[in-house]
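2024-03-11 09:14:02 DEBUG pipeline.ingest accepted 1 chain
2024-03-11 09:14:02 DEBUG pipeline.ingest length=93
2024-03-11 09:14:03 DEBUG pipeline.predict start
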Amino acid sequence: MHYSFGPDQGLTLSDGLPDPGYYSIEVVFRFGEISAWGKIIDFKDLAVDEELYKQNGRLDFYLSATGPSGAFAADIDAHLVVTRDDRSKEFIA
């Protein structure tokens, strides 16, 4: 199944995690362009900027870590898995 979203649109999950400290999210998506900032996952209902973005072909967890160049290419499917483990304080994407 494919979805297309305009600016400020996307899928939402509310209260769907049995334990918000431990989870994995798997998504397959594509961007038409990769140079500008684009939010991939919002964890705090638009309350903070520290979220998961793409920027210039990189995965960027704003203010925390930036991945290598070339993670994303325009109009090519990207497969992303994000995992959080509250006990070890690990966040892996």
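2024-03-11 09:14:41 DEBUG pipeline.report The mean pLDDT is 89.
2024-03-11 09:14:41 DEBUG pipeline.predict end
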